[in-house]
């Protein structure tokens, strides 16, 4: 079984600031290419595919391959490959709505298939600093069957450059801007802010690892795009950081906890909803939090 949620705060390190900036720039280029594809083809929200064992053609594909092989080794997995894409949010209120990662083409045929493992690697933390949120035991198959889900535990990850997280690919997740407040005044460092002429953004690399099913829509990155990106390097940047997960700070939310309930609508025609009691916090010195709902208090999805 894949881990429910794990955080590796310093998993990704860079040999130089230049290499860091090059990777961020390449993520922006790929995101722009993906945006154009969304406008000009029927394949809205196009993602990319890298089969296991494929020789990477650029530094970005090298990082995708390293992420995949590292999880494959440490978890003892045989995998088909990885679906990957980049996300660039430069507005302070930008966020990502609640969703399940899936083979969306198969879903339309009634075949619900999810990746084995979802991963997020934070490269730059300017613009929106909406935390990634992952809800335990919130599976799409149960919601599609008309069953609501009670949320006993929610994992929140603040975007910090170089941090890597992974989670069970079947779980409901998002990056809601409203949840930033739970971290109080926790600092988020923007990479090279004084050295950059442009405003830093929230730049992330998303890699979903698939084990027994290959989604139909993702295609390999176009050669014309790959040749314009930074080349493969001899030093493996992903292997330079610590490979040990760090336990998140647990916050218990019970009947006596001061909290306000926040709700979101999501899904087709906004017919589904998420409701979470969010505690009022002071100064939290952590970049990952696990909300544990107790004493009859819980979140819900339905």
Q: What would you note in describing this structure?
A:
This protein has a domain of 208 residues. It is built from 5 helices and 16 strands. The strands form 3 sheets. The chain has a 6-stranded antiparallel β-sheet with strand order 1-9-5-11-3-2, covered by helices on one side. Strand 13 and strand 14 form a beta hairpin. By secondary structure, the protein is an alpha+beta fold. About 5% of the residues have low confidence. 18% of the residues lie in helices and 31% in strands.
Radius of gyration from the alpha-carbon trace, in angstroms: 19 Å
Oligomeric nature of the chains: single chain
**Which strand order spans the largest sheet, edge to edge or round the barrel?**
1-9-5-11-3-2
How many strand elements?
16
In short:
This protein is an alpha+beta fold and 302 residues long.
Secondary structure elements and pairings:
Blueprint: E1 5-8, H1 17-40, E2 48-51, H2 59-75, E3 81-89, E4 96-99, H3 104-108, E5 117-125, E6 132-139, H4 140-144, E7 149-151, E8 153-157, E9 164-168, E10 171-175, E11 202-210, H5 223-226, E12 249-253, E13 259-266, E14 272-279, E15 288-293, E16 299-301
Parallel strand pairs: 12-15
Antiparallel strand pairs: 1-9, 2-3, 3-11, 4-10, 5-9, 5-11, 6-8, 6-10, 7-16, 8-15, 13-14, 14-16
């Amino acid at each position: 079984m894949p881990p429910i949620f794990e955080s590796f705060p310093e998993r990704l390190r860079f040999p130089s600031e230049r290499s860091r900036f090059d990777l961020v720039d390449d993520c922006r280029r790929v995101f722009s290419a993906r945006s154009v594809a969304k406008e000009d083809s029927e394949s809205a929200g196009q993602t990319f595919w890298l089969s296991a064992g494929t020789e990477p053609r650029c530094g970005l594909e090298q990082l995708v391959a390293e992420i995949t092989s590292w999880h494959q080794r440490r978890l003892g997995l045989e995998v088909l490959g990885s679906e990957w894409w980049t996300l660039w949010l430069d507005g302070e209120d930008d966020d990502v709505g609640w969703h399940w990662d899936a083979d969306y083409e198969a879903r339309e045929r009634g075949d619900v298939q999810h990746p084995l493992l979802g991963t997020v690697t934070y490269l730059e933390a300017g613009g929106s600093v909406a935390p990634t949120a992952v809800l335990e035991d919130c599976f799409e198959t149960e919601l599609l069957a008309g069953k609501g889900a009670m949320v006993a535990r929610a994992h929140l990850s603040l975007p910090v450059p170089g941090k890597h997280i992974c989670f069970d690919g079947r779980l409901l997740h998002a990056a809601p801007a409203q949840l930033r407040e739970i971290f109080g005044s926790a600092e988020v460092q923007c990479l090279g802010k004084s050295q950059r002429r442009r405003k830093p953004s929230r730049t992330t690399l998303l890699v979903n690892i698939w084990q027994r099913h290959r989604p139909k829509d993702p295609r390999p990155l176009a050669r014309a795009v790959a040749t314009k990106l930074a080349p493969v390097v001899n030093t493996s940047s992903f292997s330079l950081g610590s490979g040990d997960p760090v336990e998140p700070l647990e916050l218990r939310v019970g009947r006596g906890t001061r909290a306000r309930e926040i709700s979101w609508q999501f899904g087709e025609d906004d017919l589904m909803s998420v409701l979470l009691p969010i505690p009022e916090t002071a100064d939290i010195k952590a970049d990952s939090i696990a909300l544990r709902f107790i004493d009859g208090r819980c979140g819900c999805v339905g």
